[in-house]
């Protein structure tokens, strides 16, 4: 199938790039950038585990997303402008800011989750349950390998 390790490596990169392109086309939510969709989903997940009445700390969002504070601030500003999230300041610690979903934001997250579920159901129908479970297992193993490799490099 592939003549050398270089050919195999190129095939893997091509497969990932093709998948990413197809994913971007099929996991769109109208009016949102991919990064905004990801941010809203992360916020929804984080709020389910937060016990703070003001929502999720902005610093926690930065850590979860593994992006810089300016990037998170940019996302927050864009989503606030779209009236999908609100930001508030901690009354005790003025340096701490919190974010949470608005009613409209909760509706958009429900749409995001519905779109994701529908796409994954379609993929499972296409691949079959066994192949889908095999894909998940392989991706989990590959992610574990890459994370361990990054830790060893101090990345």
UniProtKB/TrEMBL annotation:
Source superkingdom: Bacteria
Single GO biological process annotation from the record: response to stress
HTH marR-type domain sequence ranges: 5-144
Secretion signal span: none
Keywords associated with the record: DNA-binding
Keyword DNA-binding: yes
The keyword DNA-binding appears for this protein: yes
UniProt GO MF annotations: DNA binding; DNA-binding transcription factor activity
Protein name: MarR family transcriptional regulator
């Amino acid at each position: 199938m592939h003549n050398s390790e270089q050919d195999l490596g190129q095939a893997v990169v091509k497969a990932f790039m093709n998948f990413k392109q197809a994913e971007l086309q099929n996991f769109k939510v109208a009016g949102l950038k991919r990064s905004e969709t990801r941010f809203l989903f992360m916020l929804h997940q984080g709020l389910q585990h937060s016990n703070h009445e003001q929502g999720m700390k902005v610093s926690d969002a930065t850590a979860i997303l593994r992006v810089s504070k300016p990037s998170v601030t940019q996302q927050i500003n864009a989503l606030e402008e779209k009236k999908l999230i609100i930001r508030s300041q901690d009354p005790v610690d003025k340096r701490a800011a919190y974010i949470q979903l608005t009613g409209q934001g909760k509706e958009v997250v429900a749409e995001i989750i519905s779109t994701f579920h529908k796409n994954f159901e379609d993929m499972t129908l296409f691949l079959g349950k066994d192949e889908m479970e095999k894909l998940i297992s392989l991706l989990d193993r590959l992610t574990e390998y890459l994370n361990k490799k990054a830790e060893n490099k101090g990345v």
